[in-house]
Amino acid sequence: MFCRYLQVLPKWILALALVVCCYQPVVAQEPPSKAPKANGKEAIDAKHIRSFLDTHCVRCHNAKKQAGKVALDQFPQVQLMQQVLSMVESGEMPPADAKQPPAVERAVAVRWMRQVLKSMGVALDESATVASNRGNSVDHDALFGPDAGKAGTSATGTRARLWRLTPKAYENFLDEKIKQFNLDLPLCSKKPLGYNFGMPRLPPGQMKAPWSFIPQWDFTNYAQILRVGESEVEIQLRNAGSFADAMLRKFRGKLKNGKPSSKEGDRIPQLDALMKVGKKATPDQVKSAVRETFSKLLGREPDADELTRYSAVIQKALEANGAEDAARQLLIAVMCTPRLVYRVETAGDGRAMLAPHDLARSIAFTLTDREPDADLLKAANEGKLKTADQVREQVARILKDKTIEKPRLIQFFREYFGHHAAKEVFKDEPTLQRLLPNPGGKIILNSKPGFNAEYFVNDTDQLIRWVVREDKDVLRQLLTTNKIFVLAYNPDFPSRQTDETQQRLKNKPKDKPFALLMVERHPANIYQISGFDIKAVTGWIPERIYEMPADRRMGILTHPSWLMAQSSNFDNHPIHRGKWIREKLLGQRVPDVPITVEAQLPDEPHRTLRSRMEVTRVEYCWKCHKQMDPLGLPFEQFNHLGVFRTTEEVVDKEKTNGKKNLGKDGKPMATRYTTAPLDTTGFLDGTGDPKLDGAVKDPFDLIRRLAASQRVEQVFVRHVFRFFMGRNETVEDGPVLVAAHRAYRESDGSLTALLTSLLTSDSFVYRTKE
Amino acid sequence: MMNRRTLLQQFSAGASGVLLSPFLQKLEAQERGNYRTPRRVVFVLFGNGFPEFGSLPAGVAIEGRETRQIPLGQHALPFDIEPFTPYKDRLAIIHGLRGGRVMPYHGGGFGALSGLFNGGGTARFTNVAGVSIDAAIARRLPGIFPILNLGIDPGAAQTQTHYCSSAWGPGRPIASQCRPELAYESLFGSVGTTRNDFASRRNLLDLMSGDIRRLEANLTGLEREQLNHHLAALESLSRRETTLSQRFEAGTLTRSAPRLPSPFPVTWKDTVTAQFDIAAAALAVGLTNVVTITSELCAIRGKYTGISEQSTHPLGHNFPDRELNMDGWRVLTLVRRHMAERTAALLQRLRDTREDSGTMLDNTLVVFMSDSAETQHSAAGNWPFVLLGNLGGRIRTNQIVLYPMRERNIAGGVGGVGMAGNPTINTLYNTLLHAVGDPRPHFNLVGADRENPTLAGPLRELLVG
Questions:
Q1: pTM of the shown model
Q2: Same domain (yes/no): B114, B150
Q3: Taking CB atoms and an 8 Å limit, are B125 and A199 in contact across chains?
Q4: Which residues in chain A are contacts of B123 at CB distance < 8 A?
Q5: Does B17 fall in a domain?
Q6: ipTM reported for the complex, 2 dp
Q7: For residue A73, with 0-12 CB atoms within 10 Å meaning exposed, 13-18 middle and 19 or more buried, which class applies?
Q8: How many distinct structural domains can be found in chain B?
């Protein structure tokens, strides 16, 4: 196949062309605009911009020189200002050979320009605040460098916002209500009754969340993902309907197990009263029913507006269809509250600490998938969530309490490493047959009910849980340990390893080999654990920790799950792997692929991947690719299923096209393979940490050096911030990040200490309207 | 003499307000000058595969190195699809399409209608990687109900809804309604009562809209956009319930509703019949333009009760049903024949309903297929399809289309495997999009497949013009 890289124009040429095209008419036709005269703040911002332009731009872009036909000695008007913002924000300007503004100064200038443009009525793309691909926009040194915290504003906080709740949070809420009212409905958390060839058989009547989140290779944007559409609303209504019907069945005496419930508090007395009175109910009785239904279901009283609106609708239903229908309507309406869909964090005008109940929800949903527990609610009710110490007390309590499930922690690592996407990468059967080592039984393939990719993901997840539980040197452990769990059971994801299977395996006779009782087989020998033979193993193994050969595996980046997630259908993906390291460990931005690039490697399977990738060495491709390829290529140590190798398999052209291999139609009957020497070298360059830069021998050398870097640790802190705050860090967050990193280091790498620091910071507890 | 305007005015003055029947909808639209003949597409999916002998007339060779188009002409239809004989002139039988990235082993899950890889192993039954073809078509052919998704959980009458076949996009599955009485309730109102549930639902939706509006006031930017979308969905549903409420009050919904068996059906066979009756009524009365019926929820599960008490899985392995004294593959022909009979009954209902100068059938297309390609343990070498109807003349019918294939032996007869370079189901789905007026460069192709013109479509053998 023909390489298309030569068609690419250098990004800076394109950028310059764009600037020139846009600027020309601006200078020629429009008079320079004046700085906004608006009230104080915009005027101050404009003054700062003027100072920045004078210092860094006007030497070339003045009325006389007009470099690029752009003059900035007058205050730029709207269109030109947008271009200036784009150039300064992307780092294109000032040019590389000119004196660069310090990182903090650049970041602050960008903020001023955005504010001024906003005041001029320009609708700016706000996704930069949340989009994960814009995560490393702020220069690392602006956050952790000597000038950190000198951004000009001390007050930090997060914009008022809305988060989508996870499907699990929705289902947990329903489960709590089913338990609270002792309803004759299966819990949402109840495992499938069994699996029909991989398809779950759900308990009859089980409610499910109206939406699901698809695994991403990066952080899920909970603020924007999946807008609620008609389909979701319909399912929400249906779930609420099932819930209401179960409540009404109780009222009619068809109680659970045929016996009346003696449990206190599992009824809504005012609703019962309304149903008894029927159509004769007074408006006050309707209001009482509304008030108590809110209180029992949502744990709060309706406000005046809600009381009026809900009461009016229920009164109408009462008159039209009678008491039972009205009660049903009320239950459905309250169970369709927006709070079951969103986590709402508003601030009123200006900057303010989150209201106690909102803060309680924020803490709860940041760490768990549940509404605030009793202690947290109590603190909110008693006004004990108003200072950083009070918040710290609650955060520390939840983090310390081992009985509280904290699925958000494992979810962070899933989205950070992206290893769970291994399940999403399609591998065809002939490839799997060819590349997987024989497990000593039937190989489990993509199409068969129990593919192995899920198990590799589960094994990595289990290791993460273990490291988080140990809570020591967390990042370094994850990057370097050669420990692994095998056949790990994943409680969070659908799996054929049901609770029953787990119990059956745990209770099985000691002398019976594990493999005989497993529903699926697992090619665990990919890990090459010394002496591991699944056929000989007895007892429940998924909770046992094993060691992989230290010279062949080192941390998650050498796990089959991560390697598969960062692979393509038929090959390794050194570019993605390198990009991951550049962004997730070094905290730098790799520009998006220019739209003019039709990125394809030559279709020459007789050559090694490394040699085929030489097409990226062309100067204008290499400008970006040098940031990725040399970091990804050391992982050629493994094939794209994560199997360790010492040679690379390539197509044997001669044998494939040899006479012996040709069919009657003159075409090869099968592809023949041979091996080529493996090159696992790479290069670390431009990392911002001089101790890191230099030649890399193999993936283990690369990982070892990265894991020892303080900068990598700081970048990790940035990512933890990003996930748990639900937004990208800004230059004002510098002190918060520095404090969090300090907490991490002083605690010998404790994730608990790091999170406690972040979740008690102003960035977490304060909200601003804009 | 009463003209159209008078007729409309009379109806408007009545209790019903607007929109009483497809006929009157049409009159009203003509009056507004925006009338277009509605087009309809129905997907019928069943499990355990659709073997070649189930749709290829005797005497037609499977093996061939070139693409062939054979007139259906005098060929007699095989037993499985014999009920389609009255519609032979509107029939296209397709063989040799490949599954591409979809693994339909034991059922294609969400891949069957999307042509997408939804994840390894069993993930295809639960993960949703992208939009399905029925939903993509529904966006083009909007109706009061954008899509009617009906399922049958074989031998499990307690299942109410299931996500299995269709989706609006990644992570946005569309629930299949597995109980006829619940599907009936959504479309025509509560069975046997005079209560107007549509009006109640509208009131609830309006209440929900009020809650969202209140939230909106405290937010700006992206979040406000998100809420606007939520609000639009609530308002759209509210409008739908208003329309249905008016029709309910006027009695037209009840009149056009099918009669559900009493007690409600329990066996697979009776449930299939009831679901098809509901689908036919919904199409005929103009409640929807897109229907998907899945007889085993795109997987392999349960029993075809009413036909056989043997489980569906052993039947696919050709284990015999001792009670019926029949090999598995023969029982499966009975299953497919029942699906074909009910499909034919649906076509009959559409043919009996006048539309423009012809009948509703003229503007309809049925896609009759297995979610499991040609066999239970399919590797998707050949994914057979039967298309019924020409969608207003857009589909070439009265033909058999065979892409290059070689023969292989399967239980009950001879099967086929399409050549590696053949088009995939994605290509056919893109052809359907072209036919409904939504031409795209490709449908759900990813990676290098996008560069392959063979996979892009449309299939010229099937598309007119």
A1: 0.80
A2: yes
A3: yes
A4: 423-424, 451, 454
A5: no
A6: 0.79
A7: middle
A8: 2
